[in-house]
From TrEMBL:
Protein's recorded name: Amino acid transporter transmembrane domain-containing protein
Tagged with keyword Nucleus: no
Molecular functions (GO terms): L-amino acid transmembrane transporter activity; metal ion binding
InterPro entries: AA_transpt_TM (IPR013057)
Pfam family of the protein (one): Aa_trans
Length: 581
């Protein structure tokens, strides 16, 4: 404020000492009035000022009434000013290069963009082509709560009944609540550490906090495992897209050509495991009865061409690959609402099926027993509740920062209820043996089931729009990390670089879709690996470093905190001893 008054007096004094009629030595051109000075000062902070930009602007509005012509704004015309008071140069895009790391959520397996982050994604995707910098929008607590719920929800919903079967019904409920509580606590730790040590005025990431409190090794670790989450998400999405595309096309082929005699109805339920064994037995018996000369005659059928584990993942790449090479993925953010619609439809789908089946439980007592494969559920839940790498950015948009803890707790409560509803209701009502439950509950229904057809088409469209966005974020993360490691390496958009990266991504996805098309296995391994770092280790280490820096770390607190990383190590270690077959 003092600088503003002093500079204003200087200009006024120089004007009074200068002949107003002379044009040979003007202070400024007729177009560079005091208002132009105000326009410049509005863009920066004073080094010695004790006031805020708001107060300076308020003072200007009271004292300076001259209007600035848009064509003479500071963004379009250089401004000359005495050296001592020259406005500092500010790189307004200094932190935009890290934008994609903020959303390594979606990376999260779920891939559902939320209301609070979608506008920020859209703004940053277009920043290179935009001249205006908008201030971040804030949201009410209700919007923030449902944004977190919408972000966490995803493909884990389809595998939740399978996870409950792996652990046992009531142990599965307990594991859900336990892992949800740990994830909530570690999320809250990240918010507290950012509140205590985050730099004011900067969009701090978890990796930034790791660099400030733990060192560069922790920052690199955080960035690497953000990539792991995104890669795991893309692989699971590709497996699901292949599955949904296969069944949708198979239904259309059979319905249009009337190849199959199955009627369209809503009560068909199957056990794919038993069907696979039956088909293998039948095939072997048929082959033994076929003459040798008939075995040598090649036959063509639609099933040979349209195979879920060979041709479909490759043909999917023909359609998807062109969508991955756009310079900007802004277009795909327009379909964010489909994520919420898909979750709501799945809830209604499970509710309707469970009600129509009724309760089908032979013995409730055995459901209290903890099964040896319970770690499959704990590994999957580590990803089901994963939001840690973007929670700081989501909560930053909360209008009432003092309510962050409450809003985060309510959001996790909603997520836990949703998972338990899907898992518990579908499990107790499933009419076949519980061992028949698939890691994708839609596989337990015939392809002619009406509600299942709608679910597959809806989820297929959602994943087709989400996959390019997640791939784009992964690509930018890779380039930004390379720029961080190699100072002389700068990223400029090049279709050659983009195509090479996308070819690698698609190839990896196809290989998994062909040789390991089990989303339950993929989710639990991805969750256990990334969860060990982002859920069980980094938040704890950051909190310990924070307490140590503030000289408030005690031996008792340290012992309590160490329990959580140990749980994470055991969770990861146990995944290698589970047989999904």
């Amino acid at each position: 404020m003092r600088d503003l008054i002093r500079n204003y007096k200087m200009i006024t004094k120089r004007r009074e000492s200068t002949d107003s009629g002379a044009e040979s030595h003007p202070l400024l051109s007729s177009e560079s009035s005091v208002a132009s000075f105000g326009a410049i000062q509005d863009q920066c902070m004073f080094h010695d000022s004790d006031t805020t930009d708001y107060e300076a602007e308020k003072f200007q509005n009271k004292t300076l009434k001259t209007e600035v012509s848009p064509k003479h704004s500071f963004m379009q015309r250089p401004f000359c000013f005495p050296g001592r008071y020259e406005a500092p140069s500010i790189d307004i895009f200094a932190h935009e290069e890290k934008v994609y790391e903020r959303f390594s959520y979606f990376s999260k397996i779920n891939g559902v963009l939320n209301m609070s982050t979608s506008s920020l994604i859209r703004k940053n995707l277009d920043y290179e082509d935009s001249d205006d910098i908008e201030s971040p929008k804030t949201h009410s607590s209700l919007v923030t709560i449902f944004a977190i719920w919408n972000t966490i929800m995803g493909s884990s919903l389809l595998a939740m009944p399978w996870g409950m079967e792996k652990a046992g019904l009531f142990p599965g409920v307990f594991l859900n609540i336990l892992v949800a509580g740990i994830c909530l606590y570690t999320c809250y730790l990240l918010l507290r550490v950012n509140e205590d040590h985050g730099l004011i005025g900067q969009n701090n990431e978890v990796s930034d906090l790791c660099r400030m409190l733990l060192g560069r090794w922790a920052e690199i670790t955080a960035k690497i495992f953000s990539l792991v989450v995104l890669i795991g998400a893309l692989i699971v999405y590709w497996v699901l897209m292949s599955n949904f595309l296969y069944h949708s096309v198979h239904f259309l082929y059979g319905y249009i050509l009337s190849v199959d005699d199955f009627p369209i109805k809503n009560d068909t339920v199957i056990c794919p495991k038993e069907l696979s064994l039956l088909n293998i037995t039948t095939l072997n018996s048929d082959l033994t009865n076929i003459p040798t000369w008939e075995k040598q005659i090649p036959t063509w059928s639609f099933d040979q061409f349209w195979d879920l584990y060979s041709t479909v993942p490759i043909l999917l790449a023909v359609f998807m690959f062109p969508l991955l090479n756009f310079k900007s993925a802004t277009f795909f953010t327009k379909f964010n609402s489909i994520g919420t619609l898909s979750v709501l439809y799945l809830l209604a789908f499970v509710a309707f099926k469970s009600y129509s089946w009724g309760i089908n439980m032979d013995d409730w007592k055995i459901e209290f027993n903890l099964k040896p494969t319970f770690c499959a559920l704990s590994g999957m839940l580590s990803l089901s509740y994963f939001i840690h790498n973007i929670i700081i950015n989501i909560m930053r948009n909360n209008r009432y920062q003092e309510n962050n803890g409450r809003d985060l707790s309510v959001a996790f409560g909603l997520v836990t209820f949703t998972y338990l509803f899907i898992g518990f209701a579908f499990y107790i009502s499933f009419p076949l043996a519980k061992s028949c439950l698939e890691d994708n509950i839609l596989n337990n229904f015939e392809k002619y089931d009406t509600l299942t057809i709608i679910a597959r088409l809806l989820l297929l469209f959602q994943l087709v729009t989400v996959f390019p966005l997640i791939s784009y974020m992964l690509r930018m993360d890779i380039f930004n990390n390379l720029a961080m490691l190699y100072k002389n390496w700068s990223y400029e958009f090049s279709y050659i670089k983009v195509v090479i990266v996308n070819l690698i991504i698609v190839t990896v996805c196809i290989l998994f879709a062909c040789f390991l098309p089990r989303i339950g296995t993929l989710i639990r391994y991805t969750g256990a690996i990334s969860g060990l770092v982002y859920i069980f280790m980094l938040p704890i280490f950051l909190k310990i470093a924070s307490l140590r820096k503030e000289r408030r770390l005690s031996a008792l607190k340290c012992m309590f905190f160490i329990i959580i990383p140990i749980f994470g190590f055991l969770n990861l270690f146990s995944q290698f001893f589970i047989n999904d077959n």
